[in-house]
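FAQ: What does the model actually see?

It sees only this:
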Amino acid sequence: MQKLLRSIFLSVSVLLITFSVSAQIYAPEGLNMPGDWDGWVNPPENPVFAGEAQSSNGMVKLISLGTPFYQTIFHVAATGGDVAAGDYSFKFTSGSLENIWQNQWGDVTVNFNTFQQYTYGVAGNGEPQPNTISLTNDKWYVVNWQNTGYENTTAVFMELSGEPVNLETVSQLPLMPQNNDSVMITVDASAAPSAEEKVYLRYTGDGWSTSQMALVIFTGATGSASISPYDNGTRVDYYVFTTTLESPVSNTDLATIRFNTNNGENYHYTVGDTLSCGSGLALITTDPPFPLDTSEVTVTFNANLGSGGLAGYNDTVYIHTGVITSESVDNHDWKHVKTEWGQNTPETRMTLIDSNLYQITIPNIHNYYGIESGEEVLKLAFVFRSREPLSNGNYLEGKTAELDDVFADVYKNELNVKITHPTKREPLVDPNAPLPVCVAALNSDSITLSLDSLWLQTSTEKQIFYVLNPSSFSPGIHWLFAAAYDSAGFVKDSVRIYIRGDVPVADLPDGVQSGINYVNDSTVTLVLHDPAAHKKFAFVIGDFNDWNVNDDGYMNRTPGGDYYWITLTGLTPGEEFAYQYYIGGTLKLADPFCDKILDPYNDKWIPEENYPGLKSYPFDKTIGNVSVFQTAQQPYNWVVNDFTPVAVNETQSDLIVYELLIRDFV
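And it is asked to produce this:
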């Protein structure tokens, strides 16, 4: 099982790691700006001129946009600033602490708000002359230095009369533009921008082969600009940034002061796109949502969920089915069973519509099962099975997580309501993407939809399709409520959602390593390594939070973006906890450094005598391999502490045991 896990980790690592072909300076050495503003100390003691790579509080940081560059921002003032006004000399340098002056860039008299080329040289061998600059009190300065490696490069000093603003939120209207619609983009900043700081909306309809810019016009701290209309089917990507330069079409990244790129993903929409409520996120779903005993119903079965007995099977599946009626004693008392166990008939054959997703349509429940007059149908009962038995005579079966039969309610023809999307299985909501909310009702005069205590929509139809704009609501847990009304009263349904907030950023704790770090008998720190720093956010889900996404499971991202970590407290000592990393809202991944995993496909083949008490897989909670940790583990009591194997032959000393999975080895 560990070999399987290692192969999974390697394949994921290939996805996470990419290699840049552009030259850059050595990142662990970074960039410094020593000069007479700091007594030519290198690395500088003034943090605004010191690189974060070599100084713990250094503020010269690598910014990763399309064009990588180093940036620092500082305030010039007679008192209370980072440096006082005056004429200064300085150099850009990069080198190890033992040879800090090795690489230098200079020979420039700085002109503000202008791209200038800086000459590269090596210390003691044609090194460039210092740069010169004149700084003015009560000004802010932004320095962007293009990271092109050890050669001449370009940099720009931008001068402002106020502190650069942060672009905090970005929203659009309409949420789902149609053909020839202009789209209004609204930007909320941390403050009103200074006169010199311009905010631009940059967008593309061809994957950044070309792009357009629109100046964002501000009133106070809120501004807006519009995206020109595009044809249906066009994907439009956009982001916002600030600069002092006028429409910097070329070298846009290097001209950027602050930006909001939706955590590196850019904001986007597709013209003419539509939303649907989807299916397949529950063990079984029915269409219509409220099947009546005389109606047609389509049943969809997700083999990944429940017991997982057919997960990965992707072959012909048959239903063994009957009904629970008013004549049944309990849920095990099936009536009108359609076939004998193991009998394959066209009427009970499901259609594979996607990986692990099967469907069958029952034309009329009464007729299909042969229900007698006067007998009330309460539930449809199912066991999903493989087409042929295994060598031991048993079939692969799909049941509930508790290995019970699967049921679909058959409804009375009376008032009812159900939120069909989102479901409890998909609570994570992207704050920057519209969320379709679907409500179905039966025998209602009207239905309403609300979020927490806020009314959203009322309809006299039997369904609601509502597009929710999550960016209009605060991050965290919210509840969707639906109510259906008739002349006699009302019924309700609710679903919990979690709107993701900003990614928490924090340095990696001292002394931890990738994987599981046991702090004490009730505390664990989990560390996930993303070497390429491409993933935007991650949660940890598991037994300790009932596999839900919430603030308590939101993992910290290190400032460089290459690690995610979280500390879990209050754990029961000695208890096994199953968990996964939920990355980017799509990928659920077992910890590649854990000692034990639970496998939904293969654990069922491990006999109890080989591994007594193997922890059960959390079917109906998640999918994919699941990792396990356990605090307060008791050390194994070895009977023989000095065992030496008998030599097989003269090559015994060259033998390497790669790995052996003891838990199911026979």
